[in-house]
Specification:
The protein is of the alpha+beta class. It has a single domain, classed as TATA-Binding Protein (2-Layer Sandwich), CATH 3.30.310. It is 48% helix and 30% strand. The chain has 2 helices and 3 strands. It has helices at residues 14-25, 50-72, and strands at residues 3-10, 32-37, 40-47. The protein has a 3-stranded antiparallel β-sheet. Helix 1 packs across helix 2.
Length: 73
């Protein structure tokens, strides 16, 4: 079985979206891809199972939290 998920994270400016996406790019691998569309960071994740997808998303969102914390200073 293949599962996938798309996250859209909207920020108050395109600059902030780019900063967050740039910090997440280092974690991009075959399971998740990140791109910016205006003020929105779009992440698409794929996995072989729900459990694997959940693990990928947990890791990714932890990195998002750190990036957002750095934006706030």
């Amino acid at each position: 079985m293949h599962v996938q998920c798309r996250l859209e994270l909207v920020y108050d400016s395109a600059r902030n979206a780019k900063v967050v996406a740039r910090s997440l790019k280092v974690d991009d691998e075959t399971y998740i891809t990140t791109r910016v569309r205006g003020r929105t960071v779009v992440a698409e994740a794929k996995a072989e199972s729900f459990r694997s997808l959940l693990h990928t998303l947990e890791d990714y969102l932890a990195c998002v939290a750190v990036a957002e914390k750095l934006l706030r200073g």
